[in-house]
Design a protein that fits this description.
By secondary structure, the chain is an all-alpha fold. It contains four helices and no strands. The relative contact order is 0.16.
């Protein structure tokens, strides 16, 4: 079960990273599309949920419920870097949104 939760979390993370990549692509190429609107909505929604969760990924409790004591980002980053992953990605997202406005 732990592996399925990790896989699902990885897929969700890949989706949001794809949205972030598309925001940057659109910002650099001055492209506008429905996919950009959906990406911005998804990222803003994720940001709101993370903020409401005190800055932590809201899927962390799912890992704990199935007995996985390791945070998602700790699967491939050192513990110190993993703690900085969410704030770093939030900053990268804000910069991407700013790029769209320029």
């Amino acid at each position: 079960m732990v592996h399925l939760v990790r896989l699902a979390h990885g897929l969700v993370s890949a989706l949001f990273l794809s949205c972030l990549g598309y925001v940057y692509y659109c910002g650099v190429t001055d492209t506008r599309s429905i996919w950009l609107v959906l990406s911005v909505i998804a990222l803003a929604g994720e940001g709101a949920v993370v903020a409401l969760n005190g800055g932590d990924c809201p899927l962390g409790f799912v890992h704990q419920r199935v007995g996985d004591e390791k945070a998602f980002f700790e699967l491939f980053l050192p513990k110190r870097a993993a703690k900085l992953a969410v704030p770093f990605l939030a900053a990268v997202t804000v910069v991407g949104f700013g790029l769209l406005l320029v």
